[in-house]
Amino acid sequence: MAWTWRFEKSDGGETEPAVQPEEFTTQGDAESWIGEVWRDLLDGGTDQVSLFEDDTKVYGPMSLHSADE
């Protein structure tokens, strides 16, 4: 079982992340990582992310922008 992130622009198109992720073995590890690097991803052009367990979308898209933007 692998947990991965999909990195997207605001229109839903996939984009290359500014920080290269690893493949995570747990959901918690994947969520901890995104919590640590989300600002770098946003600064690098990623607007939103979706979390996948293998090929199944668990949730997303989740915006990396603050609520007041």
For this entry, give a set of tags:
69 residues; alpha+beta; 3 strands; globular; Mtc1 family protein
Molecular structure report:
Residues 1-26 are annotated as: Disordered. 25% of the residues lie in helices and 29% in strands. The chain contains 1 helix and 3 strands, in the order βαββ. The protein has one helix at residues 27-43; strands spanning 3-8, 48-53, 56-63. The mean pLDDT is 94.
Number of helical runs?
Answer: 1
Physical arrangement of strands within the biggest beta sheet: 1-2-3
Largest sheet, described in full? 3 strands, antiparallel
Structural class: alpha+beta
Shape: globular
Count of discrete domains: 1
Fraction of helical residues? 10-25%
**Distance between the terminal alpha carbons, to the nearest Å?**
35 Å
- Round the mean pLDDT to the nearest integer and report it: 94
Q: What series of H and E elements makes up the topology?
A: EHEE
Extended strand count: 3
Radius of gyration: 11 Å
Region (Disordered): 1-26
Protein name: Mtc1 family protein
Biased composition (Basic and acidic residues): 1-12
Topology:
Elements (H helix, E strand, L loop, with lengths): L2 E6 L18 H17 L4 E6 L2 E8 L6
Antiparallel strand pairs: 1-2, 2-3
